[in-house]
Amino acid sequence: MTASTGDPLSPEEAAALGSGASFWTTEETGGAASFWLADGPHGVRKQVGSPDHLGLSASEPATCFPPAVGLAQSWDPELAAEVGAALGREAHAQGVGVLLGPGVNIKRDPRGGRNFEYWSEDPVLTGTLAAAWVRGVQGAGVGTSLKHFAGNEAEHDRMRASSDVDERPLREVYLRAFQRVVEEAQPWTVMAGYNKVNGEYVSANSWLLTDVLRGEWGFTGAVVSDWGAVADRVAAVAAGLDLQMPGPDPDGDAALVAAVGAGRLDADALQRGGRKVRELADRVVAGRRGAATVDVDGHHELARRAAARCVVLLRNDLVGGAPVLPLAPGASIAVIGEFAELPRFQGGGSSHVTPTQVDVPVEQLRDRHTGDVSFVRGFTTDGSGDADALRAEAVAAAGAAQVAVVFVGLAARQESEGFDRVHIELPADQVHLVREVAAVQPRTVLVLSHGGVVRLAPVADVVPAMLDGALLGQGAGAALADVLVGAVNPAGKLAETVPLQLQDVPAYLDFPGEFSRHRYSEGLHVGHRWYDARNLGVTFPFGHGLSYTTFDVTGLEVTAGEEGITATVTVTNTGDRAGREVVQCYVGVPGSAVQRPVRELTGFVGVTLEPGERRPVSVLLGRGDLSYWHPVLQRWVLEPGEYEVHVGVSSRDLRATALVEVRGEEVRLPVSEETTLGELMADPEAAAAVAPMLGALGSGDAGAGLGTDMVRMMASIPIGRLRAFGAGRTAAEDS
Ligand code: BGC
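# beta-D-glucopyranose complex -> structure
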């Protein structure tokens, strides 16, 4: 099929293009070629047997790269782009035109069932990594689908519930990541989610699909529905939806044509939808040019390398005067835990990939370690076996070795797309096992595998060393072994806070919601913003991650300019091996006129240094990321005043702070009868003009008899109603 012409489409063609030809393909009509869409995001999931979007049927083998939960821990946009490019090549080779990802919903609550498919609790980290990933995939000539637009932060009731979010958190937290990816990387498609936002289905929400996405952000691609998300096709097309999936939908096609005929749907909207799908088909056809071969082994190596970059060293204490990790060459190691033999490396549901091969952690460790490596299961995840006997065997093995490495975590059936978790505990038998092993073996290392955050307080204090692998894809086993033996120096950083307890999390009382309403009551204070605002202790903070070397971060300098604030620091590798540190910038505006997080991640940069090497690094904290959304003006505002820039290596390990004056915009709202006296008096010119009218009320003494400051008491009165309180009236009027 050659690329289409720009000819107008007949209403029938436009309607047919507006819904799929099958579960995974689009129609070939009106000059548009048919093409495949496939999940995604962390591997190509091309189903050739019976189709489903629940991960039930098998798919063609494809490299299973680290899911977003793991890849986010790299804090490395270049790596995200490299993985994206490899995914693009695989999609291309399998004849897939659009890969259904990335998922950039914010991890509002650790119980979110699909958190493994999302990047972070933070929109700047999410948006930066996802934009790089999109550039990587699309650079290979394959489209992406930015999902699930928007407010789809819970699985519970996801096809009906409304995410009720105030405008500032919606803009500043939840839409921010989408906005960045659209503006920086122009994904070929955006996927309209299942849910409603503030009472209206996203798939029929013209404010989101047309005003914000296309109007404000300049999105030029096609809007695709999530599979089965469209409740009313005519309303959806009118709102800005271009492609309903899956298909076919002949009745819906006919309904669209009839609606145009009856004047209930604008003919231009139907044309727009069809043309957008045809343009998308043209891009896919153009992208198909060139060789489409995949180096399967090379991609497995990349999956391993990427996974290793994502491992977070949570803790590494000294025992007997030396850090427990990396493992001492020649030491005897007792490997314990089912996940060392049957690794958990991806999540369940529509993103589930059939891997090309899977590295087994205990085998990989045996390949790399010079000492004896024994293995016992210690526990099972399916309840089979005698838990006491398995534990006793593990404790004996741990006691007989010089080091114990215990692989714990969540089993696939404990977390998945489609439902949320109800708690964040590790299985009790695993906690029991860890505590007993640690009691007999002072050098106990924990290795964690999980899609959603788990509470670590019950184990964090009993073991001296911990690695967090989250979900790392098919190379997890090799990656973990490389970090354990020190072939790779860990550099990952947490992309989510690990709270002390579930009761501390921002949305604790409002997640997931009930009666089909999900109230985002924590407002702006999502993730690390919440723990800092409430001064709560955490087990491990957002951004945390150690290394086998050490770094100094010194000499912070900040300057403000047209584009934002530039922060420069010098990073020095003060240890004895090469390593990577991620410099994180958190910004607060202490004198802000509006509510703001105490500080929030505004930028970051990674730097790799040889032992003893020192290098200055700069981070631009862009105007957009420093601004807040003004709900009255309906636009972003960069506030003038003093900004506090903190530079650190986690949200709680801040190494330097500097203040900088930013020349922002003094907001002046139009004065109306609804303007309050307080708002008016805050403006010096207006205050001078109205002071005489207020007469005695304007003096601080006026309320003395009432035991109050009259001006402050009256600050909330709209000026249109001041007369009722005597302002500006003459004595004659009063008598
Ligand atoms: C998921 C999407 C996925 C689609 C197709 C839906 O259930 O929410 O993320 O891309 O199915 O499998």
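# post-check
Residues 39, 53, 100, 147, 226-227, 350 surround beta-D-glucopyranose (CB under 6 Å).
The mean pLDDT is 94.
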